[in-house]
Amino acid sequence: MAFRVRRVTTTRTGGVSKAPFDSFNLGDHVGDDPIAVAANRSRLAKATGLGPDRLVWMNQVHSDRVAVVDGPQAGVVGGEQGVDALVTTVPRLAMVVVTADCVPVLMADSRAGVIAAVHAGRVGAQNGVVVRTLEAMLTAGAHAGDISVLLGPAVSGLHYEVPAAMAEEVEAALPGSRTQTSGGTPGLDLRAGIARQLTELGVQAIDVDPRCTAADPKLFSHRRDGRTGRLASLVWLE
């Protein structure tokens, strides 16, 4: 028997936040009105049919740290130190990652009943947060060949310009990520690098959401707008 896996990614519409967080901002660390963020998170919980106590949030800090979650949490996971990936085997408990250009990585082994949500920005991806998460999933009973992955909306290589030295540094740690922007300058495609990394580790079922946060006005993008809100990407087992 296999579990049914649900994956959801929000857009910036449908909430109550005011500009520049308009309107469905799910990030509680960007300067938005806490009351508005709470209302948006309540709307999200209701839309999933899970309820607010079944959504697990983390304090994301661009690290490679992974937390294994065994039930509903009273607050954000990670405390002051922070974490950037959540793993669980508990059904109907959604792991949540918030992003505005970084890669949300939603992973699941439906046969073993193990899921994970990863915040993979440049630093975390370069330092191996996705690898650490896969290791935690395997420890929890998952099998690499049974894991499916969705790489959610993120800034694309066409719009992610970085200094040449940085592109080389990331490429050395995450092969396949260096690219050129639409202007012909050095750039990074983190989703390409992560997909290659996972494939080399035995994960075959990898889907990539084609949307670019910097190019799509329906999505939040820190690189495009500076002060802005955050999308939420969720994964859970039915």
Describe this structure in words.
With 238 residues, the chain is an alpha/beta fold. The chain is built from six helices and twelve strands. The strands form three sheets. A six-stranded mixed beta sheet has the order 3-4-7-6-8-11. A four-stranded mixed beta sheet has the order 1-12-5-2, with no helix packed on it. A two-stranded antiparallel ribbon has the order 9-10. A hairpin with a 5-residue loop joins β9 and β10. The protein is globular and about 45 Å long.
What are the salient characteristics of this protein?
6-stranded mixed sheet, alpha/beta, 24% helix
What would you report as the Rg, rounded to the nearest angstrom?
17 Å
N-to-C CA distance? 12 Å
Global shape = globular
- Give the beta-strand count: 12
Oligomer: single chain
The helix/strand class is alpha/beta
Biggest sheet overview: 6 strands, mixed
Strand content: 15-25%
Helix content: 10-25%
Mean pLDDT: 97
Question: Low-confidence stretches at least 5 residues in length (pLDDT < 50)?
Answer: none
Strand order of the largest sheet: 3-4-7-6-8-11
Order of helices and strands: EHEEEEEEHHEHEEHEHE
Total of DSSP H or I helical runs spanning 4+ residues: 6
Keywords: Copper, Hydrolase, Metal-binding, Transferase, Zinc
Organism: [Mycobacterium] zoologicum
InterPro entries: Cu_polyphenol_OxRdtase, Cu_polyphenol_OxRdtase_sf, Cytotoxic_necrot_fac-like_cat
Protein name: Purine nucleoside phosphorylase
Briefly, what is this?
The chain is of the alpha/beta class and 238 residues long. The chain is 24% helix and 24% strand. A 6-stranded mixed sheet has the order 3-4-7-6-8-11.
